[in-house]
Each structure stands twice: as structure tokens, then as C-alpha cells.
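Late entry, written up from scratch paper. The run itself happened at the end of the previous shift, but nothing got recorded in the book at the time, so transcribing now.
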Amino acid sequence: AYRNRSLFWTNKYRRLFPYEQARISVLSLGFRSKQEWDEYVADGKQSHGAYLPNHPDEMYVDDWVSWEEWLGIMRPYEEAKHIVQHVLKLGNLEEYMRFVDVDPKRAEKLRIPYKPHIVYREAGWDLDDFFGSMQ
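Output as recorded:
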């Protein structure tokens, strides 16, 4: 059960507002940190009312991945670079853009940005460094 609610209430809520639906709603808000989420909750979630749980990690325990995934926060530069080079094995920006165009859901789940050269500009974006020396 969620907080002080009954198991019946919790299950009914999850059916009415499933995790993915709630997450899509949260992504539209554009939070960049858990602190921003906490401030939003403290302010009463004015733009979404009671439909988003204050503690989604408890409400959606079976679906929960992480706060970063819930809020849609992109991975840090070094983590994204590792995924691009060693998991996806993408060798250049053209391959990367094709990947995010063809499989945007997977890119979203991996928390890698659509435009890494913009998102990571302040983190020291370097084309050769990001894609490594793929031969």
C-alpha cells in the first residue's frame, strides 16, 4: 500500500493512472533534478493536481527504476559517452542521430539526449572524444 492508503486504494490508483502515463506527464514538466521535483511537490503540484503521487518511488514500486529515469534526467557526459562507445557502438554523430530517430524510446530509456552536442556543450563536448576512435 502507498503511505497510509489501503491496498485497494493503491491498486485502484495504479490502474487509473499507470506508471508510464504518470511518467509522461512528469517528463512534460522538464525537471532537471530531484530537488526541483521536491520543490514542485512542496508547492502543491499546481499544474497537475493530485494525479501525480508525491512519492512515486513508493506508489509505483514494481515499475520504479530511479529518480533520474522518472524525471527524464540525461546521463552525465562520461556515462553517455561510455554507452555510445561500448554498448551502442556508434562511431559518429550521423550514426547517433539515426539511432535516436529510429529508436527514440530506447534512447529515452538509456537517458541519452537527442542532441548531445547541445546538451553536453558545457560539459566539454568534443565530437572525437564522445565517439572515440571507432575503427
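The chain has a mean pLDDT of 86.
(Scratch paper discarded after transcription.)
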